[in-house]
């Protein structure tokens, strides 16, 4: 399986920093904020509680699963509909594994997070790319055209990584109809759902409740609660999928550490944290997009959610005779800024730039991006 390009860039920057280089990192979806004190205290109390020193339920602590069930779209969810996992990535792998066999196909959206295709391959299935249009919107007709007799599922993320696009309700309805006709599973990657900045966001099950029996949700506390290192996520959906995931957990990791589950329960009762994170990142998004839009050769759509800007740098690439943005990354690293080239997301004419960094880092990054890209455009003119 190919190396994760984001991890590779981060490792390279770490080596350069050890040699004295001053490089700001705008690569990973890593929140700049810290886990709330109440969540940390809940973990500390749990570690001191002897009941967490022993085995627990493979599916996860009932209190956490009830809190997760209460957060799901629609009514009637219970703890039996939920399995606690080691982050959302783990949940995604379990979801794909539950609904595919070797040789099956799963539709993944491009540009998209490479972890979707990786999860499909890890399950022995084949990812089939469905390209978005030039404006990064997904046309349901393109999804329908990609379905074959071997297609078993489609993975949808809204807001999407790296594009930041949010699926309109009409598109969700059309996709649901397509999935129903083809008897497909919908795997809903909801990791950035709490960081939707526009009023048009709707979860697939809010828009189309009748798809409940064919929808699997994966999510975590990582992004909106600044808990990426805690590795707590979940899978929720129909009984057959939940049972498959629970059996796999019991046979492999037994269960997620109980103290971490207590912390996640506290996080799900913290409603202020996600709201504050949403306001903070929206402000930083606006600053970054405004700065990028002032630069020649760059076209930056405003992301409706998530942590990333995904500007087109096609003009800059053409002016310099470059075929992809990996070449531009080299120039930016020399200027002291690390981002992710679009090749990592099957979009070689774009860059992914994280704006969920602290204000000082963002200010420095904007200053360096502006100076570097302006000079590059001047030299190539």
Task: Quickly list its features.
381 residues; alpha/beta; Aspartate Aminotransferase, domain 2; 7-stranded mixed sheet; 14 helices; 12 strands; 44% helix
User: DSSP helix count?
Assistant: 14
Query: What is the count of distinct domains?
Result: 2
The CATH class of the largest domain turns out to be Alpha Beta
CATH architecture of the largest domain: 3-Layer(aba) Sandwich
What is the gyration radius calculated from CA atoms? 21 Å
Average pLDDT across residues? Answer: 96
CATH topology of the largest domain: Aspartate Aminotransferase, domain 2
EC number: 2.6.1.-
Organism: Agromyces bracchium
Cofactor: pyridoxal 5'-phosphate
Domain Aminotransferase class I/classII large: 22-369
Brief synopsis:
Keywords: Aminotransferase, Pyridoxal phosphate, Transferase. With 381 residues, this protein is an alpha/beta fold. The chain has two domains: 134 residues, Aspartate Aminotransferase, domain 1, CATH 3.90.1150.10; 217 residues, Aspartate Aminotransferase, domain 2.
Describe the structure.
This protein is an alpha/beta fold. It folds into two domains: 5-30 and 273-380, Aspartate Aminotransferase, domain 1, CATH 3.90.1150.10; 54-270, Type I PLP-dependent aspartate aminotransferase-like (Major domain) (Aspartate Aminotransferase, domain 2, 3-Layer(aba) Sandwich), CATH 3.40.640.10. Helix 7 links the parallel strand 5 and strand 6. The mean pLDDT is 96. The protein contains 14 helices and twelve strands. Helix 2 runs antiparallel to helix 10, helix 6 runs parallel beside helix 7 and helix 11 runs parallel beside helix 14. The strands form three sheets. It has a seven-stranded mixed β-sheet with strand order 2-8-7-6-5-3-4, sandwiched between helices. It has a three-stranded antiparallel β-sheet with strand order 9-12-11. The two termini are 40 Å apart. It has helices spanning 5-18, 37-48, 62-71, 87-99, 114-122, 140-146, 169-182, 204-207, 239-251, 258-268, 272-293, 314-320, 325-334, 359-380, and strands at residues 24-25, 82-85, 105-110, 126-131, 151-157, 185-189, 215-220, 233-236, 308-309, 337-338, 340-341, 351-354.
